[in-house]
Automatic annotation (TrEMBL), chain A:
Family matches, as InterPro entries: AAA+_ATPase, ABC_transporter-like_ATP-bd, ABC_transporter-like_CS, ABC_transporter_ATP-bind, P-loop_NTPase
UniProt protein name: ABC transporter ATP-binding protein
ABC transporter domain span: 5-236
Pfam entry (one): ABC_tran
Similarity-based family: Belongs to the ABC transporter superfamily.
GO terms of biological process kind: quaternary ammonium group transport
Keywords: ATP-binding, Nucleotide-binding, Transport
One Gene Ontology term of the molecular function aspect: ATP hydrolysis activity
Automatic annotation (TrEMBL), chain B:
Function per UniProt: Probably part of an ABC transporter complex. Probably responsible for the translocation of the substrate across the membrane.
Entry's transmembrane regions: 89-111, 123-142, 148-164, 210-235, 241-265
One Pfam family this sequence matches: BPD_transp_1
Organism the protein comes from: Methylopila capsulata
Top-rank taxon, per record: Bacteria
Subcellular location: Cell membrane
Family membership: Belongs to the binding-protein-dependent transport system permease family.
The protein, known as: ABC transporter permease
Predominant localisation class: membrane
CDD domains: TM_PBP2 (cd06261)
A GO cellular component entry from the record: plasma membrane
Entry-linked Gene3D superfamilies: MetI-like
Amino acid sequence: MQAILAAEHVTKIYAVHAKETTAVRDVSLDIREGEFVCLLGTSGCGKSTMLNLFAGFTQPTNGRVLLRGQPITKIEPRCGMVFQSYALFPWKTVRQNVEFGPKMQGLPAARQRELADRYIAMVKLSGFENHYPAELSGGMQQRVTLARSLAADPEVLLMDEPFAALDAMTRQVMQEELLAIQEASGKTVVFITHNIDEAILLSDRIVVMAANPGRVTAVIENPLNRPRDLVAQATPAYAALKSRIWDLVVGDVRGALAGRAGRA
Amino acid sequence: MNAVRAMTRSVAIPLFALGRPGGWSTRGSILLLNVLGVAGFLLLWQVATAGGFLSPLFLPSPGQVLNEATQVAATGELWRSIVDSSRRVFFGFALAALFAVPLGVLMGLWAPARAIVGPFVSLLRPLPSITWIPLTMLWLGIGEAQKIAIVFMGTWVYILVYTVESTKRVDPLLIKAARNLGASDLSVMREVILPGALPGILAGLKVSLAISWSCVLSAEMVAAQSGLGALIWNAKDWSNLALVLVGMVCISLTVLVADLAAGVIERLLQPWERHRHG
Ligand SMILES: Nc1ncnc2c1ncn2[C@@H]1O[C@H](COP(=O)(O)OP(=O)(O)OP(=O)(O)O)[C@@H](O)[C@H]1O
Ligand SMILES: [Mg+2]
């Protein structure tokens, strides 16, 4: 089967004041249609950079990024981004933010409203439709961002730590909702997280990345069957998978800390 | 908690508010102090002039000023002056805004436009509006058009500079987000750039509105038959100091009212800023 999203030998170098940072080097990755993929890795290993490339926000310095075989050369609405920093429109109410995608697609007003109501309810924000983002907590804003992306109905959801600001209970509810949506709609999801449990719970495959330079160190098929609920988390298979991923990540964390200490 | 809020509210008299919630810090007490201060000043003024400490040639008494005010108000001259000046401000300011806001947005978005207009902005900005009086009089005479032109010349550059800056500062992440959600160029403009730049543009308009008043008054002082500036200048020629003071107070009040109205409009246009006021 053809990959819906692909990175072919992608290198991205940022230059700021003549200082070059290799955000990712020679990353190749195929993402299959309908798949739930997690990108896992320490801070600065290029996870957001990969999503920005997939969304068409930046172009690779070397290599190619493809959507259904076509190079992504401009901002791509088919790859909807859930931003790490929310990026809500401050001058729009919760409802207007969520309606934005449907509105841009030229859907009738009644349909826009219907979609907005549905996704606002899904992220448990009914009753806050007429609030402005500044009047919401961080976790609530994060959920509005999620609802806004879902309402725009992209083929691929690119999610940059979308649950980072949520408390543990809300996070679990949102994870379940997201899985339900993904299973029902067959959407492809690329999901960034720092959290190994979250990666195992959600994903079909886990892409482990390391920093300096950002690169893919392992791609792990998730052998656990859904639903991977609390019962599943108590099984030896779960523990084995978790410690395997931990071993892959921990070297990079230690290395990063040592590197920082060495430089200091 | 209450004390902290009270303190921040009464910055004018923090000493009295310290650690005394509900003391000299409630709304009512502040108003009382405001009134007492003004009344005390008026009393001092009255005593100084009526008691002969100050010659009426230097400063008329509050009673004389009030007397003068009721007289010019009764003849309708005062209202006519206020209306004439306000009308000139309105047209000059509106023209400047209609010209400078779209140009500023264009310059904010498109560097070549910035490069072309930039030198003119740099050269025109330091020129006080009164320096335009000779040229505008030559071109337009001393009628309404000339007053409006002075207001226009005195304000458009400020409106432009504010608009360019606030357009450039619109968060690029929000523009990316809008495009990612399928927005066209036109939609990005209407849904993101304009509302994003609006607070800065409105701030610039408010500053320029205040400036436009000083423009119109100086133009009226030099050459005009009507308006608050002319009222003051003519009163000086007739040595009617009371009328000069009446004119000055009227200018203060009119500009204050205009500023209040601008503030109300600003809030209405930006409901999303309401959490800052509540
Ligand atoms: N716009 C940019 N300009 C310059 N350097 C950048 C830019 N974006 C990212 N980088 C650099 O690229 C590297 C990877 O950044 P990236 O944001 O992709 O990391 P990340 O894995 O998402 O980290 P985190 O988990 O902290 O969000 C970092 O060293 C960062 O400094
Ligand atoms: Mg990131």
